[in-house]
């Protein structure tokens, strides 16, 4: 397998947004995704849509290289059947292990995992965050973390503390729309939990039927930087 190598100029651009140890011991959270010019991340619900050009797709793998875990919601798994691995590596023999984390309150992965591409290509088994109502009375090969649901939702701080308990020091959150829209505005004790926001903007419109990223309220960004490539732009920033 050949490594996905981003353009050289992306590396210094990303440098100050990559994970660093946090004084509170919680995992460093990078929120990153690719959107169209009309703020859509896919053409329709449940449809996988390529937005990133190769230069920014390879950037995503480069960013994965600096993280210990990669998190998506079950909606993304159902739509994309993702690999959630890291295909940027400096030595062919040294693949970077990145642990897939899936928010799956009803444990749909129980029946999906065996036929997934993830199982075929990714040696790192996912950790599934499930609702604590789920009954498991058979032997399963997946690692599950039951969490309480409040109005059907796991609290983000519960998720982050559970990751901290597993000694995971950095997590790259990639989507989908529900996860992104929630996390953009989530605060704990008055503070945002996202440490870096890295958004690829593809040179395309996906139309009004597309799955939209638009959080429930506006928010200010700081330390904003831009990189522009052949077809895509990338914005890196911090929230709040
Ligand atoms: N362009 C991009 O960068 C990306 C695009 N996508 C696209 O996004 C679409 C999927 O988006 P969504 O349907 O919104 O799916 P999603 O991946 O955000 O998953 C939503 C589901 O995850 C679970 N979930 C999320 N947050 C939770 C919480 N706090 N507590 C409990 N359960 C939680 C729930 O079951 C919820 O229905 C797909 O079309 C996919 O292709 C996904 C990732 C990245
Ligand atoms: N960076 C980026 N650009 C796009 O155009 C995309 N559609 C996505 N989607 C995300 O990448 C995951 C699939 O990638 P792997 O199979 O894991 O390599 C998918 O699940 C989305 O999270 N990302």
UniProtKB/TrEMBL annotation:
Pathway in which this enzyme or protein is active: Cofactor biosynthesis; riboflavin biosynthesis
Pfam families associated with the record: RibD_C
InterPro entries listed in its UniProt record: DHFR-like_dom_sf (IPR024072), RibDG_C (IPR002734), Riboflavin_Biosynth_HTPR (IPR050765)
SUPFAM superfamilies assigned to the protein according to its UniProt record, in alphabetical order: Dihydrofolate reductase-like
Keyword Oxidoreductase among UniProt keywords: yes
Oxidoreductase recorded as keyword: yes
EC identifiers of the protein: 1.1.1.302
UniProt keywords, alphabetically: NADP, Oxidoreductase, Riboflavin biosynthesis
Residues spanning the signal sequence: none
Single GO MF descriptor: 5-amino-6-(5-phosphoribosylamino)uracil reductase activity
Domain Bacterial bifunctional deaminase-reductase C-terminal: 27-231
Catalytic activities: 2,5-diamino-6-(1-D-ribitylamino)pyrimidin-4(3H)-one 5'-phosphate + NADP(+) = 2,5-diamino-6-(1-D-ribosylamino)pyrimidin-4(3H)-one 5'-phosphate + NADPH + H(+); 2,5-diamino-6-(1-D-ribitylamino)pyrimidin-4(3H)-one 5'-phosphate + NAD(+) = 2,5-diamino-6-(1-D-ribosylamino)pyrimidin-4(3H)-one 5'-phosphate + NADH + H(+)
GO biological process, one term: riboflavin biosynthetic process
EC category: oxidoreductase
Family: Belongs to the HTP reductase family.
General function of this protein: Catalyzes an early step in riboflavin biosynthesis, the NADPH-dependent reduction of the ribose side chain of 2,5-diamino-6-ribosylamino-4(3H)-pyrimidinone 5'-phosphate, yielding 2,5-diamino-6-ribitylamino-4(3H)-pyrimidinone 5'-phosphate.
This protein's name: 2,5-diamino-6-ribosylamino-4(3H)-pyrimidinone 5'-phosphate reductase
């Amino acid at each position: 397998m050949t490594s996905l190598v981003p353009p050289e100029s992306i590396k210094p651009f990303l440098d100050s947004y990559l994970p660093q140890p946090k004084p509170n011991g919680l995992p460093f959270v990078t929120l990153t995704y690719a959107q169209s010019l009309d703020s859509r991340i896919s053409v329709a619900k449940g449809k996988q849509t390529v937005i990133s050009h190769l230069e920014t797709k390879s950037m995503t793998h480069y960013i994965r290289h600096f993280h210990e875990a990669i998190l998506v919601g079950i909606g993304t798994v159902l739509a994309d059947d993702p690999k959630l691995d890291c295909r940027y590596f400096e030595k062919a023999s040294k693949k970077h292990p990145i642990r897939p984390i899936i928010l799956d309150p009803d444990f749909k992965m129980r029946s999906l995992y065996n036929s997934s591409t993830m199982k075929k290509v990714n040696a790192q088994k996912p950790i599934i965050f499930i609702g604590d109502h789920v009954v498991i009375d058979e032997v399963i090969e997946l690692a599950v973390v039951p969490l309480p649901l409040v109005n059907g939702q796991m609290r983000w701080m519960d998720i982050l503390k559970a990751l901290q308990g597993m000694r995971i020091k950095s997590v790259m959150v990639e989507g989908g729309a529900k996860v992104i829209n929630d996390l953009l505005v989530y605060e704990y004790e008055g503070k945002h939990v996202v440490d870096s926001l890295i958004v690829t903007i593809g040179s395309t419109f996906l139309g009004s039927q597309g799955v939209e990223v638009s959080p429930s309220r506006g928010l200010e960004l700081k330390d904003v930087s831009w990189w522009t490539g052949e077809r895509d732009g990338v914005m890196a920033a911090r929230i709040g």
